[in-house]
Amino acid sequence: MTELNRRRFLQTSAATTLAAGVPGLAAAQESLGMAMIVPSPVGEVGWSHSLAIAMEKVQEELGANLTILENIPEGPDADRMMNRLVSDGNKFLLAGSFGYQNGAMQIARRNPDVTVLHASGFMVAPNFSPFAAKYFQGTYQMGMAAAALSKTGKLGSVAAFAIPELITSINAFTLGAQAVNPNIEVSVVWVNSWFDPAQEQGAAKALLSQDCDVIFSNAQDTPSVITVCEEAGAYVFNLNSSMAQFAPEYYLGCVSTDWSPFFLESAKAHLDGTFGGRNAFLGVEDGVVQVLDWNPAIPEDVKAQIDEVSAAIADGSFHVFTGRILKQDETVGVEDGETLTDEQIVSMDWHVAGVTTPLPQ
Amino acid sequence: MSAIGFILAGMLAAAMPFLLAALGELVCERAGVLNLGIEGMMALGAVVGFIIVHSSGGHLLGFAGAGLASMVLALVFGWLALAVRANQVAAGLAIGILGSGLSALFGKSFESQTVTGLPKHALPWLSELPVLGGLFRQDVAVWLGLLAALAIWALLRFTKLGLVIRAVGENPHAARAIGYKVIAIRYAAVAFGGLMAGFAGAYASTVYTPLWAEGMIAGRGWIAVALVVFATWMPGRLVFGAMLFGAVSLSQLAAQASGVALNSQLLSSLPYVMTILVLGVISANRGLLKMNGVASLGEPFGP
């Protein structure tokens, strides 16, 4: 009996030693743990949705595990949930809102083996990359289409908060429209809320009552503005994910973001151990920003121009913010031939001439 | 359409979620119960109403279901506040949070879906007026809401039931001494408050902004609670206050759209600043509060 026991013991311990000798084997079988947290519900459309579907694509591609936590308010709750996700063994973390920045950065510093991607922040670390989209490349194209379709020469934008990301997309929209019709005017209503569908609809109606006939739904996560415009017969477009089903007739298109190329590249780099934190400002040239669901009512010659511009943006021969660009007060914003740098774009705090609403200070 | 026309056309509909919820809260407070859970009850009503209308049960059924759901939640609050005699402020807040949570739970698979609102009915002749005309083109729920305000005013002022409700709120011990069932009347008032909050929520999610998104009530329940104090517990002033509130929240949008050089953050906060100012003015006037205030508001009643 004892001998048998001893033999068994030797056998099992040998097997254990063997397994321990090749740690790579055990680790490779264990799939990558990915997690994301977002402050709003992951609906059928909108910002959180666009992040979630991109993460799901990466999950499929890599056979990883994915945990999605939605509706996590920015603040101590978020920090706790992110710590929890990391202690549960997740190594690839997506923090889907600006306000998660400090908590996510602490986690990245404490856990060098964890890779963190953070939406629209500015802090960078070797395992921490902020990312943002060059929406302005898409809204410029939308402006061209809007100017071609507008009968009144007045365009409008319902916008959430006067922060650089939204200001630049309105400016590019205006510049694109001016490329087709130099006399176009753009009015902006700041709702001063990320989320208030009733006020957003009120804002859209206010713009329509001022004869604006193409509306830019800027950073609304629900089809609030889209449905109002469809009812009123005004063209409308939005950012992030297509809401065409809510406006079958008057949906102008969607400046969509497909984050999956960037997420996939980052996740692969994480697995290879080659991930390096950087400020990822991604656009048409990265396959992240695309305009989808163009309305067939856009005249063909304008559509051809738009396609040209889009190709020129992709190959770098055209930049939206190349001078000469005038500010609202008619002073020069960008000198002739000069182009704004990424840093200047992400900190833009002025409107171009043609935007009639003064920028809130 | 001019900016003025836009404000006039939209302010009644904008006021309706505040007005309906505040009317219910007014009756509830007149009976001496402070229900701070209005926000959550509206959210629950909004999601239930939306789900019913979305599955094409129609608006009538949607409002009924919303009212019923919020009424049940209000009765849970009533049980806490009246039977268990819990602190009304704490119980109201807890029930409000519960309502918001439930709305998120039920609405999960309906996030960002839309429904069709109600058609507008134009009053003959009046709706033909220039500028003012828009004021008289409203959906049927607005007309019914205004009638409800009128009915509640008449009920509180002219009927015996109204007198009893006010007596219960003023001095529950005296009311009980002359044979009225204080607790039962308070339960009824709380249930009515819930019903109206449910209607308000359903109006917000199926008529005013015909879509469901979690958190879409966005603080309107709290404004309703503030409006009751704003109105010093008088239905007439409540209608005025709700309309003023609707008009101010729309006028800041209209001002921006027409390019007025005003600070938009300041404009957006105007309705709230106004509430604080009016609350300050009212609270400073002791006489006004004594005349109209409800003496036993928020105090648990035990025979």
Structure commentary:
The complex is a heterodimer of chains A (361) and B (303). Chain A is 42% helix and 19% strand. With 361 residues, chain A is of the alpha/beta class. Chain A has two domains: 23-133, Rossmann fold (3-Layer(aba) Sandwich); 136-257 and 289-346, Response regulator (Rossmann fold, 3-Layer(aba) Sandwich), CATH 3.40.50.2300. The longest helix of chain A has 20 residues, at 2-21. The model of chain B has no long low-confidence stretch (mean pLDDT 90). Chain B has 303 residues and is mostly helical. In chain B, 71% of the residues lie in helices and 2% in strands. The termini of chain B are far apart. In chain B, strands 1-2 form a two-stranded antiparallel sheet. Chain B has twelve helices and two strands. Chain B has one domain (3-119, 133-292): ABC transporter involved in vitamin B12 uptake, BtuC (Orthogonal Bundle). The interface between A and B is large, with 42 and 39 residues.
Q: Average pLDDT across residues of chain A? A: 88
The CATH level-2 architecture of chain B is identified as Orthogonal Bundle
State the major sheet of chain B: 2 strands, antiparallel
What form of chain A results from the Cα inertia axes?
globular
Kindly provide the name of the CATH class of chain B.
Mainly Alpha
Number of domains of chain A: 2
How much of the sequence lies in strands of chain A comes to: 15-25%
Number of strands of chain B: 2
Shape designation of chain B:
globular
Chain pair with largest interface = A-B, 42 and 39 residues
Mean pLDDT of chain B: 90
Strand content of chain B: under 5%
In what order do the strands lie side by side in the largest sheet of chain B? 1-2
Terminus-to-terminus distance of chain A: 87 Å
Proportion in helices of chain B:
over 70%
| Tally of helical runs of chain B | 12
**N- to C-terminal distance of chain B:** 60 Å
CATH topology of chain B: ABC transporter involved in vitamin B12 uptake, BtuC
| Multimerization status | heterodimer
